[in-house]
UniProtKB/TrEMBL annotation:
<protein>
    <recommendedName>
        <fullName>sucrose-phosphate synthase</fullName>
        <ecNumber>2.4.1.14</ecNumber>
    </recommendedName>
</protein>
<dbReference type="Pfam" id="PF00534">
    <property type="entry name" value="Glycos_transf_1"/>
</dbReference>
<dbReference type="InterPro" id="IPR012821">
    <property type="entry name" value="Sucrose_P_synth_Pase-like_dom"/>
</dbReference>
<dbReference type="InterPro" id="IPR044161">
    <property type="entry name" value="SPS"/>
</dbReference>
<comment type="similarity">
    <text>Belongs to the glycosyltransferase 1 family.</text>
</comment>
<dbReference type="InterPro" id="IPR012822">
    <property type="entry name" value="SucroseP_synth_GlycoTrfase_dom"/>
</dbReference>
<feature type="domain" description="Glycosyl transferase family 1">
    <location>
        <begin position="250"/>
        <end position="414"/>
    </location>
</feature>
<keyword id="KW-0808">Transferase</keyword>
<feature type="domain" description="Sucrose phosphatase-like">
    <location>
        <begin position="471"/>
        <end position="708"/>
    </location>
</feature>
<dbReference type="InterPro" id="IPR023214">
    <property type="entry name" value="HAD_sf"/>
</dbReference>
<keyword id="KW-0328">Glycosyltransferase</keyword>
<dbReference type="GO" id="GO:0016757">
    <property type="term" value="F:glycosyltransferase activity"/>
</dbReference>
<dbReference type="InterPro" id="IPR001296">
    <property type="entry name" value="Glyco_trans_1"/>
</dbReference>
<feature type="domain" description="Glycosyltransferase subfamily 4-like N-terminal">
    <location>
        <begin position="33"/>
        <end position="228"/>
    </location>
</feature>
<dbReference type="InterPro" id="IPR036412">
    <property type="entry name" value="HAD-like_sf"/>
</dbReference>
<dbReference type="Pfam" id="PF13439">
    <property type="entry name" value="Glyco_transf_4"/>
</dbReference>
<dbReference type="InterPro" id="IPR006380">
    <property type="entry name" value="SPP-like_dom"/>
</dbReference>
Length: 717
C-alpha cells in the first residue's frame, strides 16, 4: 500500500536518560543531554505531520525517589498523534546507560509485547544510540520491520577519546563496557537499512571506523533548530541582564558586536581571534569583541587546558591594550545564549567561529536563526552551513589577516549587504535546519523503506583492514615533507592509496597552529596522529583531540622556571620568542661556536635536580623538554595505545631531533637532506635504519620500496 493512502506508524527507541515531554533536565547527568532533546523534538515534530499516522517514543520507565515522578508514568502524550511510552527494564531505580546492557533483552521482550498489543505493527523502527540499536535489531528481526538507526556518539570514537584522557583499557571495559557497545554498534550497522547522521564528515570519520560501514545506507539530515527559542530581535533585548553585563566592559557598548561563543578549549582558537582583533585598528574602530567562553569563578580552579585558554585571552587583551573594547563575562546561563545572539543582531554585528576544526557547528545555525550573519572556519560543518545559507564567509582560522578581513567584510559593506546576509540566514535555516525541514527530509528517507519501493541489497561485510591497523608511517614535517614541494604529491598519492592499512602520523617540532598552517598551505591531509612541539603534545584525528593522559605523564619532574634560571646568561644562548615557547618546551637559539656543549648543559641542569631532554637541531636550535617527552617516546606511547608493534612502524627523519624516533625496533629512514650529517651516527645503530639516496618525500618513497612497506601490508590484509 502506498503511503499516499497509508499514514505510517513510526516507533522511536531511546532507552537511557530521563525523557519527558516538558522541562527536560538537560545536563543533569551524562545521559540526559542532546540525544534526549533530539528524540523528544523529533517525535513531536513527526506527530505534527499530516502524513504521519502515529509516533511512539519507547524509553525506560524509572521509578526512583531521586528523580521526578514524571518518569514513572507508563505513557505521556506529546500531541494527539505522538506519545512517550515507558517500558519496564532492569527494575525500577534509575541506571546509567553503562549498567543497562544486561537489561536490554528484557526491554526488547517487553517492547515486543507492547507492540503486539497495538492495533497494527509499526512501519519503521528508529533506534538511537548503541543500547537502542541492540533492542532495535532484535525487534526488527522478530517482526520483519525495517530498522533505521542514529548513533549520536560511537564507541570506537569514544574509546579513542577515553584512552587519550588517560583511562586504561581495563577501565574502559569495567566502567564503560566498551567492547560490548562496539559489538552492538557493529551489528546494528549491519542490520539497519538506513543510518541517519548530521554531517558527511560524521559519515566518513566516525562511521567509517566500523566493519559494517556501508555509506550507501547512510543519509545526512542536519538536526532541527528550535525556532521558538532562536529568533531575530524583538526590540526589547536592550533590557536583558546580559546587555548590562557586557556594558560593564565596554567604553562604547553601542558599537556592533563581534560575538564568539564556545568552550575554553584550545581547539576553539579564541586567543587567535583576539590577536586578529588586536592587530586590526579598523576592526577595533568598527566593533566590540564579545567572548563568551564558559563559566568560571576563579580561573585557577579550572582544568589546565581551560586555564591556558583564558590566561591567553587576558594576556592578549593586555598585550594589545584592548580594555574597553573586549568583553569577557565570567558567567552566563544557558537561557542567556539566545539573548546574546539577538543582542549581536540588534547591534548589526556578526557571529564568529574561528575553531581549528568544527564537525557540525550548531552555534552557527542558532546565530543564523537569530538573524545574525556568520564568519566561520573553513572546515567541516561551516562549509555546508554557509554553502546552504549564503549568510557569511569562511576563514582560514590560522590567518589573522583573513579573520579580520572577513569580519570587516560583514561589518563595513553597508546596511543593505548586512541585511541580505541576515535574511539569507533566516531563510536558509527555515529551508535546511528547521524541524519542519528535518522531518520532511526524514520522511523522504524512510518512505521508500515503508513502501518497499527501494530494494536494500545486503552487502557482504569483510574485515576492514584499516580498522585494525597493524602498521604506521611517521614523518617529520619540515625536513621530510615540505623541503621539496614537487616531491610531496607523489608521496601523498601513494599514502592515500594505502591508507586502508597504514596509519599516518606527523611528528614535528612546530607548535600545533604552525603545523596546521604549514599542512594547509601544502595540501597535506590531517594525519591520524599529530605529534607537535618535539613530542610534548599529541593530537588525534578527526577533531585534534589532545592526549591529556600524555600531558599528565610528561609533567613528571618538569620545572621550566628553574631551567630558565640555570641557563640564563650563558654565552651563545638566546631565548626564542614567546610564540615558540610552550608549557612543556623551553626553546633557545644556540651558537655552537661559543655556547657550552650539550653535555655541559646537562651537567648544569642535573646539579639543580633537573632531569630533562636537551635537543639540538639544525645547528641553531636548542630545546629543553621533559625527560619523559620526545618524538620517539610520543611515538611509542601512541603505538602502545593502538597495539601497533614497533617493528611495523616506519619512522622518517631529517634532523637530530628525530634520532630517538628512529632508534630501536622501528623501521627507519634518514632522508638525504643537508642535515643528513646530524643523523650519521645512526649508521651504526642497527639493521633497520635505511639511508636514502633521495631527499625529502622522495627519500620516504625510496624507503617504502626498500622495506616493501605497503606491499607487505596488502599481502597480510
Amino acid at each position: 500500500m502506498s503511503t499516499k493512502q497509508h499514514q505510517p506508524y513510526i516507533v522511536l527507541i531511546s532507552i537511557h536518560g530521563l525523557i519527558r515531554g516538558q522541562n527536560l533536565e538537560l545536563g543533569r547527568d551524562a545521559d540526559t543531554g542532546g540525544q534526549t532533546k533530539y528524540v523528544v523534538e523529533l517525535a513531536r515534530a513527526l506527530g505534527e505531520q499530516a502524513s504521519v499516522g502515529r509516533v511512539d517514543l519507547l524509553t525506560r520507565r524509572v521509578v526512583d525517589a531521586a528523580v521526578h515522578q514524571d518518569y514513572a508514568q507508563a505513557c505521556e502524550a506529546l500531541s494527539t498523534k505522538a506519545q512517550i511510552v515507558r517500558i519496564e527494564c532492569g527494575g525500577e531505580g534509575y541506571l546509567p546507560k553503562e549498567e543497562l546492557w544486561d537489561c536490554l533483552d528484557s526491554f526488547a521482550d517487553s517492547a515486543l509485547e507492547y507492540l503486539k498489543q497495538q492495533p497494527r505493527l509499526p512501519d519503521i523502527l528508529h533506534s538511537h544510540y548503541a543500547d537502542a540499536g541492540y533492542v532495535g535489531v532484535r525487534l526488527s528481526n522478530l517482526l520483519g520491520i525495517p530498522l533505521v538507526h542514529t548513533g549520536h556518539s560511537l564507541g570506537r570514537s569514544k574509546r579513542r577519546q577515553l584512552l587519550a584522557a588517560g583511562h586504561s583499557k581495563a577501565a574502559l571495559e569495567t566502567r564503560y563496557n566498551i567492547t560490548q557497545r562496539i559489538e552492538a554498534e557493529e551489528t546494528t550497522l549491519g542490520v539497519a537499512e538506513r543510518v541517519i547522521t548530521s554531517t558527511q564528515q560524521e559519515v566518513q570519520e566516525q562511521y567509517g571506523l566500523y566493519n559494517h560501514y556501508q555509506p550507501e545506507h547512510m543519509r545526512v539530515i542536519p538536526p532541527g533548530t528550535d525556532l521558538q527559542q532562536f529568533h531575530p530581535p524583538t526590540g526589547d533585548e536592550a533590557s536583558h541582564p546580559m546587555a548590562a553585563e557586557l556594558a560593564r566592559f565596554l567604553a562604547n557598548p553601542h558599537k556592533p558586536m563581534i560575538l564568539a561563543l564556545s568552550r575554553p578549549d584550545p581547539r576553539k582558537n579564541i586567543a587567535e581571534l583576539v590577536c586578529a582583533y588586536g592587530e586590526s585598528p579598523e576592526l577595533q574602530q568598527q566593533a566590540n569583541l564579545i567572548i563568551i567562553a564558559g563559566n568560571r569563578d576563579d580561573i585557577r580552579d579550572l582544568d589546565t587546558g581551560a586555564q591556558e585558554v583564558l590566561n591567553d585571552i587576558l594576556l592578549t587583551v593586555d598585550q594589545y591594550d584592548l580594555y574597553g573594547k573586549v568583553a569577557y563575562p565570567k558567567h552566563h546561563q544557558s537561557s542567556d545564549v539566545s539573548a546574546l545572539y539577538r543582542l549581536a543582531a540588534l547591534s548589526k554585528g556578526v557571529f564568529v567561529n574561528p575553531a581549528l576544526t568544527e564537525p557540525f557547528g550548531l552555534t552557527l545555525i542558532e546565530a543564523a536563526a537569530s538573524g545574525l550573519p556568520i564568519v566561520a572556519t573553513d572546515d567541516g560543518g561551516p562549509t555546508d552551513i554557509i554553502g546552504n545559507c549564503h549568510n557569511g564567509y569562511l576563514i582560514n582560522p590560522l590567518d589573522r589577516a583573513d579573520i579580520a578581513a572577513q569580519l570587516l567584510q560583514v561589518l563595513t559593506s553597508g546596511s543593505a549587504a548586512w541585511e541580505t546576509l541576515a535574511n539569507n540566514g533566516l531563510q536558509g535555516v527555515q529551508h535546511y535546519y528547521s524541524w519542519q525541514a528535518h522531518v520532511e527530509k526524514y520522511l523522504q528517507v524512510v518512505h521508500p523503506l515503508i513502501d518497499r519501493t527501494e530494494t536494500i541489497t545486503p552487502v557482504p561485510v569483510k574485515r576492514r583492514q584499516q580498522l585494525h591497523h597493524d602498521r604506521a608511517l611517521f614523518s617529520d614535517l619540515d625536513q621530510n615533507l615540505l623541503g621539496k614541494p614537487e616531491a610531496l604529491q607523489p608521496f601523498l598519492t601513494a599514502l592515500q592509496a594505502n591508507r586502508s592499512c597504514v596509519l599516518f602520523g606527523i611528528a614535528t617540532g612546530r607548535r600545533l597552529d604552525s603545523a596546521l598552517q604549514a599542512m594547509k598551505k601544502h595540501g597535506i591531509p590531517q594525519p591520524d596522529v599529530l605529534i607537535t612541539s618535539l613530542g610534548t603534545e599529541i593530537y588525534y584525528a578527526p577533531n585534534l583531540l589532545p592526549d591529556t593522559a600524555w600531558e599528565r605523564h610528561i609533567d613528571h619532574l618538569w620545572n621550566p622556571r628553574i631551567i630558565r634560571r640555570v641557563l640564563e646568561g650563558l654565552p651563545g644562548l638566546k631565548l626564542q620568542p614567546k610564540s615558540e615557547q610552550s608549557r612543556f618546551k623551553v626553546s633557545y637559539y644556540i651558537d655552537p661556536q661559543i655556547a657550552p656543549d650539550i653535555q655541559h648543559l646537562n651537567s648544569l641542569l642535573h646539579q639543580e635536580g633537573q632531569a630533562v631532554n636537551v635537543l639540538q637541531s639544525f645547528g641553531q636550535f636548542l630545546d629543553i623538554i621533559p625527560v619523559r617527552a620526545s618524538k620517539g617516546l610520543a611515538l611509542r606511547w601512541f603505538a602502545d595505545r593502538r597495539d601497533i608493534p614497533l617493528e611495523r612502524i616506519l619512522a622518517a627523519g631529517g634532523s637530530g631531533a628525530d634520532a630517538d624516533m628512529m632508534r630501536g625496533n622501528t623501521l627507519s629512514v634518514v632522508v638525504a637532506n643537508r642535515h643528513h650529517e646530524e643523523l650519521s651516527e645512526l649508521v651504526h645503530e642497527g639493521v633497520n635504519i635505511f639511508f636514502a639516496t633521495q631527499p625529502y618525500a622522495e627519500g620516504i618513497l625510496e624507503a617504502i620500496e626498500h622495506y616493501d612497506f605497503f606491499q607487505t601490508c596488502e599481502v597480510t590484509a
